[in-house]
Amino acid sequence: MREGAACGLFIVLLDAVLSLALWAGLVLLEFPGPGGLAGVWASGAAKWPVLHVVTSALTDGEHRSVLRRFVALLCLLPPVFVSGRVLVANPSSPEAHAGPSPDLIVLLLLAPVSSSLACAVWEKGLCGNGKLKDGDQANARQLLMRLVKYFRPDTLYLIAAFSFLILGVICDTFIPLYQGKVIDMLRGQVLQNGFCFAVGQLALVSLGSALFSGMRGGIFMCSLARLNKRLKHLLFHTLLQQEVNFFDENKPGRLSSRLHSDVERMGRTVALNANALVRSSVKTCLMLGMMLQLSWQLTMLTCIEIPLLATLQNKYSAVSKELKDQIQDCHARNKELASQTLGGIRTVRSFRAEREEARRYNEALDQMCAVKRRSGIYSSVFCVLRRLVRVAIKILMLLQARSLISSGRLSIGSLVSFFLYQKPMSNNIKEISYCYRETVSMEGVISKVFSYLDRKPRCQEAGDLAPEKLRGRILFENVTFSYASTPQDTPVLKSVSMELQPGKMTALVGPSGSGKTSCVSLLKRLYEPQGGRILLDGEPLHHYQHKYLHQKMALVSQNPELFSGSLRYNIEYGLRERSIERVKEVAKKIHADKFISELEYDTDVGECGGKLSDGAKQCIAIIRALVREPQVVVLDEATSKLDIEAQHAVLPEILSRGRTVLVVAHQLKTVETADHIVFLEDGRVVEEGTDEELMAKRGRYHRLKEELFSPHS
């Protein structure tokens, strides 16, 4: 920091020496009009490369880039100022052609002081709060440009919106000007026959401002709604394609928040900030032109006031944020202390520590009051300084305005118009700074949403295999699997091999945590095995079409998940169309036709099926599975909550048509009637065979059956 300040001071001194040398050379050579407009531009053009080379030689890194901007401002500010003064001057006055006078004070003092002030405000005041490293700036820029591309379908809407925005800003800019003209007419300084015309102009631009602003706002909101709809649909579609492991790591509440809150915040912040940024920038330029046309002297005073106030505001905001954080910490400590003391009042009373706790709490309150006192002092000092700056600049403006009015170069109406421009001008610059910081602060939200949009599912893509005839023979070949939340060296399944035959029922048996549910999840392709493979009719599962596979393989769990909506919606979930006759036919076969007849097909089942009993939910889940006419059915304790009659009817219906059935059950009768039993323990197949064969072995199945499947248990 000190090195940069020293280099900046050296550059200012070198600029002064060069300016003095150039001015003296022009005078000695008797160059015509050394203070003219061409001479000022020539001086700036001559100094710029010299100072640029000196800056490159003396500095490096961040200081070099800042000082290069300072050099450009130092060399260009005087020519631009003089050019603006000539442009707004009265063409009939000699000032419009003579250019500036060769005043050494202006040459050597005004330019470096104003350039230093402007550079300091830009680097520290306006950009300090949202300052990023070069890599972060590039990343933020890329994110914003990518987000802007999503507005491409609304190009015509945006063109219309920005057109109305510019028209509205132009009307806003002329309102104070015509107000000043009307005031001059009221004082009788101009002919009264133009009064009605001036009032008409004022009414016309006011009406145009309101009309164009309303149309601009409406079109922007419409475009924003369309953007949010597109982004939400795209993000929701992307989330649905992710593997189940992704949802294990990211909770539904967080994803839902990203989908709704973050997408809306992202679109609203960027769209509305772009709207405000363009509006404020255009309005600032137009108002600055109007103010220069009214009085360049008063405009220069305004340009001094705004940077000073911006610098004060930036410094106060930094200090205020730190004090607010301290106050929040004090509040948290006080709350914790009070809660701890009151919650442990029995201990406090037992040790007669009431006075000590009161002393500690009082000290905590004193500490918080001290921080609040400092915050109040800083706030008061800031308010005093801000008002002093405003009052000082206002006094200088009034003195300058009195001189201009006395000399006839400014009217009362023009002075009123200038003051009407001054306040919005300051607000526009604040809004530009705020929009910049607000947009930068959204980088994290935008980056997170785009990271979800860019994420590719970490699973094998589904193939296009969809045979008309499916036998349903399933083969597990040395399947090894572990969840993302568990270490790789402790897999849930360890080289599991088993076969499920068509037309037969296979039962998975084993203690809790043995891997039964993991086998079901892999069979439904909710997860991918890390080793081995699962074959369906000799083909890996991922070779089949996604929709085909899940239509031919149905799962009925112990606690089926239903969705809010009608009975029809839950039964036909994922299907295009199924007739009510087919549903009633399936219900009749599993003895659930009475349940279906009592409910209308369009009956609302409530949120997550809350209006139905557990048995009714299982009935719906079984019907939902069977109307798909699957070839493979997986039952995870799927009949435990049905009545006896329905339980006896479900398995024969499921086993009909040569289906492959996998049962995960804890009921004795279900396991005994299975054609094949696979006993899992610690992720391995320990035993397999029929009930009689396993009981004859008197191994783990026999012991578990004695412990868990006993009728007395």
Could you walk me through the main structural features you see in this protein, from its secondary elements to its overall organization?
- The chain has 713 residues and is of the alpha/beta class.
- Among the domains are: 1-126, no CATH class; 325-382; 474-708, P-loop containing nucleotide triphosphate hydrolases (Rossmann fold).
- The protein is built from 25 helices and 10 strands.
- The strands form 2 sheets. Strands 6-7-8-3-9-10 form a 6-stranded mixed sheet, sandwiched between helices.
- It starts with a helix and ends in a 5-residue tail after the last helix.
- The relative contact order is 0.06.
- Mean pLDDT is 76; it is low at 29-35, 90-106 and 128-132.
Feature tags:
713 residues, alpha/beta, four-stranded antiparallel beta sheet, 25 helices
Show the helix and strand layout:
Elements: H1 2-28, H2 37-58, H3 62-88, H4 95-98, H5 104-126, H6 134-149, H7 155-186, H8 195-240, H9 244-249, H10 252-294, H11 296-343, H12 345-350, H13 354-406, H14 412-441, H15 443-454, E1 474-481, E2 493-500, E3 505-509, H16 516-523, E4 531-536, E5 539-540, H17 546-552, E6 553-556, H18 567-571, H19 580-589, H20 593-598, H21 614-626, E7 632-636, H22 644-655, E8 660-664, H23 668-672, E9 676-681, E10 684-689, H24 691-697, H25 700-708
Parallel strand pairs: 3-8, 3-9, 6-7, 7-8
Antiparallel strand pairs: 1-2, 1-4, 4-5, 9-10
